[in-house]
Fold this protein.
Amino acid sequence: MQISFYGHSCFQLNTSKSRVLFDPFISPNPLTKGKVSADDLDVDFMLISHGHEDHVADAVSIAKRTKCSVVSAFEIVSWMEGKGIENGHPMNLGGSVELPFGKVKYVTAIHSSVLPDGTYAGNPGGFVIEADGKTIYYAGDTALTLDMKLLAESFEIDWAILPIGDNFTMGIEDAIKAAQFCGAKKVIGMHYNTFPYIAIDTERAKREFSAAGIELRLMEIGETIEL
Ligand code: NI
Ligand code: MN
């Protein structure tokens, strides 16, 4: 299983069966220029954590072009169907679904959620994906929450993809606690350095995670790694 980073909170997970895109925010992100283009992506599934612009900017255009299945909160899927996407799969918090590539659970995130035009987007969430014998927790935008301890009771999480940029989400210290709560020894950081509000010292982040015995991967935009 491989994962590619497309900037901010956008990743593509390639399992043995499907290509799964998370939270596409590429065309408005100047950091992606010359490295990845939303128009070039081809995926089978799109998982969207919540409705904010920096998570859905390219969602409708990619879903319309690729006809991928869009998995997200009921309200977000309904909004996208109203914009012409064909394959929506609505969920709500606590629910799981077996998809062709594996099992997906939509889990709690402590944040807010509204779509770019002001449409109510339901509650924000994250995803736990079980595929190819691995378990990946994609937290979305979230504060640290004790709910993450529940994940450790139900899952053996191999990799947690956690926001570390502070201000709008967890920062470094809380993300370390989140990894400890959910039982993940390996973390991929997201939602940092895209905007001035979420600029962080990445060397400090690596040091602090390392001191806690947790591996922190900070991927380059366009980089692909094996999970
Ligand atoms: Ni957000
Ligand atoms: Mn965000």
Remarks:
- The two ends are 6 Å apart (CA to CA).
- Residues 50, 52, 111, 141 surround nickel (II) ion (ligand 1) (CB under 6 Å).
